[in-house]
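Example record

The entry below shows one chain as it appears in the dataset: sequence first, then structure tokens.
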Amino acid sequence: MAILKPFKGIRPKSNSVTQVASKPYDVLDEKEARKECEGNPLSFYHVIKPEIDFADDFDHYAPEIYKKGIANFKQMVKDGVFFTDEKECYYIYAQTMNGRRQYGIVGAASIDDYFNDVIKKHELTRPDKEEDRKNHVRYSELNYEPVFFAYPKMPALDRIVEEVIKNKPEYDFTADDGIGHTFWVVNSDQQIADITNYFAQLPATYVADGHHRTAAAALVGKELREKNPNHTGKEEYNYFLAVHFPDDQLAIMDYNRVVKDLNGLTPADFLKKLENSFDVEEKGSKEFRPMSLHEFGMYLEGKWYKLTAKKGTYNDADPIGVLDVTNFIGANSGADFEYQRS
């Protein structure tokens, strides 16, 4: 049974939203983020990547960084850029890319669901990234960015979303990268109650993106819970910000990674090593894109290759073992992979 609750959102006023909007914290590095928000003091990068307000060589994990992030946020609230909704609401967020739109329900997910495995995870987290996000939550006592969850399609929830989006949105704009963002407030008491009750019927929700932010919110919530002798379970630290998309609206995007070097192997030796775990088929100079589970496309020395994982290198009965990313990283290729996951 999944727990979702409405909350009083702190959000930008309509006339500021395009200036405030930013990409997620881990999409750009410090220098790229600094350049992107140059001349824009309202960019949310000043909150989620406050290292842009320091010198290049300043320690990105120093306490001053996290203090600066919350200070920047409080200043924007003081200046009237942000306001707090008067009642606890849900929100509908639509994202449009390449002509395709998906609708998510924004609400407060439960840290109990995280620890009880109602929220399903499929990635391990890096301690350094996790600690960084935990410090942001510790210093600010806020969830700055929503995590991206998926849930099994439910027609009753679809109908509520369809009703809400008939209304005029609070925000509707296209960012510089061409991605459209549209946002509605769900403030009908009946719709709020229905969303809560329908989510309670879901067996699980799934982290689609944001494993580090999810872990950080849950672990800091647990810390605060253990420090509070008067804990009741209703405190805000028991929840964190998440946007939930139905599984039938999700699209799987290309997941590309780069091999830094071949670890002393020649291209021919490397291909031979791959044959331990894959059937390797040369496809020529035209880009090859995989079309099926357990297929990979690889570009090497001006040529494209189709790699098909051999039976025995994956476990279709295991929800983690069936993932192609697990299979590929587990393959004994002998090369030095640069691999980063969000």
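Notes for this example: The longest helix spans residues 211-227. The chain has two domains: 4-249, 258-338.
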